[in-house]
């Protein structure tokens, strides 16, 4: 009560009395705050705080009955009537369980009685439309979800199950955690609601545990009160949840004593659990108060006497318990058994202490305001009414004796710090909480987690740090492919293609290597591609170069033979100058193939196809001219002057320059518009860079080939028509056969060339040049060399007359 010289005002606290005596600390924290305030010369001077105490029984009926006793201010429940007009409650401190505060909050709201709760924050009580007169000392703790997410990410646990309490607090936590887990690609195997508990252990339905049978998750997160955790421990099928890692908010030590005591056959039930514990609260001077408090100081408190009798088996001097020994003078709560730890300040006790200070400071400000505003004739002591506290409770900046901020603003921000503890069970039914890490949270971007893994004792079924994933991680070189209809944590791993890599675990997609690089065998990183081309050092390049040189030497040798025997009939026959032009052009054809071998550069790229086109045009046009010469010679033997004039005028010799000029014009246009250039082909062979000559204008290239093909086809047609003419040395037949070989080679060249890749394309092109040139050389000049060198008797006038056809 607040006693003044005029009238008393009642101040009430509600507590929860369970089987554990540790809840008695709530009352002691409350009494300590009352005495501290009443002794303070600066807070409520000349006034004393008074109080009444009510037990919060775990029963809806008894809860409402206590609230009616409170409102009636007597021993009878008389709604809407207070039989003691001089004894009126100004504020209520209540509710270790949010459901209790909600139950009495609706009734107290009828009278606008302010209620300050000391239990955990509850979203329902924060609804000011429904509970405008309820104030929560605890703040909304969203940092716990961040801490749990950080712990899951630290150990790589992406497949977890959730158990939350069946209330608004549990639903809010589930929503917050699910949102953050989705952001971090952590999946929920399943989520279950724990049976509701009110006051004592009331859970008896264990169907919520059945999904553990089929779940592959090894990590389970639980958010609930003592009864919720206890309900997990008494399930008959306890083996279902042995060997699981439990993550939860830590309970008070005495609560763990009560839970673990029920599991006498399961000493390792919660062994290896990871607990988030608020850093120890401190109330200045409270520990010394607990050391000195005894029943003689509060004779009206029979509970304190019962504590002495129950735990010390003694009674104080002058008590009526004559059968008990007298308590020694040094008996103190400090000597209580370890499981009955009243010296460690719990969160609820800390909030009760602050709640008393909040109400006291609000009353102090109200009294000062009323004294300043009162008229000279008013009574000495202002009258205080419960509803008058609300404006002060909403806006006041309040500080407790330790200097801590106690503002009841729901938007207040603060730094949260948690100790991460490991619950270790021993075979002798004892247990120990070992600190293995820390977590602090200020903002979403200012948080930190430190875990010492070496200190953690995992459940006995795990030999090392447990894994909890839906699918095993994809190693580098693979990418994740999500399965339709399943969570994002459930996926299959697919190897990257031969052009892609992935250099991290669980890559969402592979990365394509740059054009100048290729993946290694494991497809984890890119390697530089070696540069390749048809080099002289390669076996193919060396073989082709040797062939080109050998054919060049052979052509030079034939030319030498023809020069040496140029006065013989076989050399003079069929236009001797054209034979020399053909041999020189064939020599250049063999030599131009060397331009295709070796490292390409701008000069060789330009010369390759231009030289090839020109020299082959000269060779083919020369064969055409030789064929025309044979036809004119045959026609000249018949009566008439035109053919003879053409033969004598050397008209056939003009075919070579005219045909060559046309090819020169085509090549000139090619070089003037889009000439060949050095290019790099990085796509044909995935692991090589091919240095090649890009033809520039493909149209111009095929125009060169097309014109050359047209000349070859024309030469073959003309030679084929003249194959049966009575030529002494069967020249037309040899020309026909040579053009047949030439056309066959280049007709075969086109499909083979377009079906090969890389430097093999160059090999095919060089081989076709050599084969077609060798075909012309062999078919036209080999028979003549045979006669000159082997059968010289036929290379004379007499032999010429006897020769019927070679």
Helix-residue proportion = 40-55%
Number of domains: 5
Number of strands: 24
Structural class: alpha/beta
**Low-confidence spans:** 1-19, 198-204, 799-806
**What's the arrangement of strands in the largest beta sheet?**
7-6-8-9-10-13-14-15
Rg computed from alpha carbons, rounded to a whole number of angstroms: 53 Å
**What's the helix count?**
21
Structure report:
The chain has 806 residues and is of the alpha/beta class. The chain has 5 domains: 9-140 and 346-395, Response regulator (Rossmann fold); 143-280 and 416-455, Rossmann fold; 296-331, no CATH class; 478-528, no CATH class; 539-791, Rhopdopsin 7-helix transmembrane proteins (Up-down Bundle), CATH 1.20.1070. An 8-stranded mixed sheet has the order 7-6-8-9-10-13-14-15. α7 (253-261) links the parallel β9 (245-249) and β10. The longest helix has 35 residues, at 602-636. The N and C termini lie far apart (144 Å). The model is unreliable at 1-19, 198-204 and 799-806 (pLDDT under 50).
């Amino acid at each position: 009560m607040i006693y003044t010289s005029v009238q008393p005002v009642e101040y009430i606290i509600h507590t929860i009395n369970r089987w554990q005596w540790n809840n008695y600390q709530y009352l002691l924290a409350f009494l300590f705050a009352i005495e501290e305030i009443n002794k303070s010369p600066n807070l409520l001077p000349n006034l004393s705080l008074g109080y009444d105490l009510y037990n919060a029984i775990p029963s809806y009926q008894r809860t409402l009955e206590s609230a009616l006793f409170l409102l009636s201010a007597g021993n009878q429940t008389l709604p809407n009537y207070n039989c003691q007009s001089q004894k009126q409650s100004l504020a209520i401190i209540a509710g270790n369980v949010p459901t209790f505060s909600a139950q009495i909050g609706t009734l107290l709201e009828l009278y606008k009685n302010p209620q300050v709760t000391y239990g955990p924050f509850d979203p329902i009580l924060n609804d000011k439309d429904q509970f405008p007169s309820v104030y929560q000392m605890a703040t909304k703790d969203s940092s716990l979800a961040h801490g749990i997410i950080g712990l899951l990410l630290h150990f790589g646990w992406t497949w977890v199950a959730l158990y939350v309490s069946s209330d608004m607090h549990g639903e809010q936590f589930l929503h917050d955690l699910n949102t953050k887990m989705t952001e971090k690609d952590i999946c929920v195997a399943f989520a279950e609601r724990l049976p509701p508990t009110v006051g004592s252990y009331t859970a008896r339905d264990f169907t919520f545990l059945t999904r553990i049978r089929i779940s592959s998750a090894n990590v389970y997160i639980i958010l609930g009160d003592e009864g919720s955790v206890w309900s997990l421990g008494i399930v008959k099928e306890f083996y279902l949840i042995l060997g699981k890692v439990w993550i939860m908010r830590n309970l008070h030590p005495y609560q763990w004593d009560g839970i673990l005591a029920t599991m006498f056959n399961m000493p390792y039930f919660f062994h290896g659990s990871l607990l988030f514990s608020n850093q120890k609260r401190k109330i200045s001077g409270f520990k010394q108060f607990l050391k000195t408090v005894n029943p003689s100081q509060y004779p009206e408190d029979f509970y304190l006497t019962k504590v002495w009798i129950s735990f010390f088996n003694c009674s104080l001097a002058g008590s009526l318990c004559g059968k008990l020994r007298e308590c020694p003078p040094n008996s103190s709560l400090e000597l209580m058994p370890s499981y009955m730890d009243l010296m460690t300040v719990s969160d609820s006790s800390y909030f009760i202490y602050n709640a008393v200070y909040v109400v006291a400071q609000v009353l102090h400000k109200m009294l000062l305001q009323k004294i300043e505003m009162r008229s000279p004739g008013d009574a000495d002591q202002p009258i205080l009414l419960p509803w008058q506290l609300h404006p002060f409770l909403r806006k006041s900046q309040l500080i407790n004796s330790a200097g801590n901020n106690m503002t009841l603003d729901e938007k207040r921000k603060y730094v949260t710090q948690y100790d991460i503890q490991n619950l270790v069970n021993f075979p002798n039914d004892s247990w120990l909480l070992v600190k293995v890490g820390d977590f602090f949270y200020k903002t979403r971007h200012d948080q930190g987690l430190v875990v010492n893994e070496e200190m953690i004792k995992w459940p006995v079924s795990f030999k090392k740090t447990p894994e909890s994933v839906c699918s095993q991680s994809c190693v580098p070189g693979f990418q994740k492919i999500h399965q339709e209809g399943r969570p994002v944590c459930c996926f299959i791993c697919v190897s990257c293609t031969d052009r892609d890599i992935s250099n991290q675990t669980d890559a969402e997609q592979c990365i394509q290597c740059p054009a100048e690089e290729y993946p290694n065998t494991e497809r984890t990183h890119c390697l530089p591609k070696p540069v390749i081309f048809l080099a002289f050092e390669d076996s193919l390049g060396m073989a082709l170069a040797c062939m080109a040189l050998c054919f060049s030497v052979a052509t030079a040798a034939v030319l030498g033979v023809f020069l040496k025997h140029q006065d013989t009939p076989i050399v003079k026959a069929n236009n001797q100058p054209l034979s020399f032009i053909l041999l020189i052009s064939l020599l250049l054809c063999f030599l131009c193939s060397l331009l295709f071998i070796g490292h390409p550069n701008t000069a060789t790229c330009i010369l390759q196809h231009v030289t090839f086109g020109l020299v082959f045009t000269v060779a083919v046009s020369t064969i055409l001219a030789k064929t025309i010469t044979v036809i004119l010679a045959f026609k000249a033997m018949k009566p008439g002057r035109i053919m003879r004039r053409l033969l004598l005028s050397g008209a056939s010799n003009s075919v070579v320059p005219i045909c060559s000029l046309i090819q020169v014009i085509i090549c000139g246009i090619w070089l003037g518009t889009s000439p060949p250039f050095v290019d790099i082909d990085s796509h044909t062979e995935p692991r090589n860079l091919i240095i090649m000559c890009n033809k520039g204008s493909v149209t111009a290239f095929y125009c060169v080939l097309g014109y050359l093909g047209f000349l070859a086809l024309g030469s073959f047609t003309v030679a084929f028509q003249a194959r049966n003419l009575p030529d002494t040395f069967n020249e037309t037949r040899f020309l026909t056969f040579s053009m047949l070989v030439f056309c066959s080679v280049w007709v075969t060249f086109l499909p083979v060339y377009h079906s090969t890749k890389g430097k093999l394309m160059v090999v095919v092109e060089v081989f076709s040049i050599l084969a077609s040139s060798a075909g012309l050389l062999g078919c036209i000049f080999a028979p003549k060399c045979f006669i000159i060198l082997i059968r010289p008797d036929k290379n004379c006038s007499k032999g010429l007359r006897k020769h019927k056809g070679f």
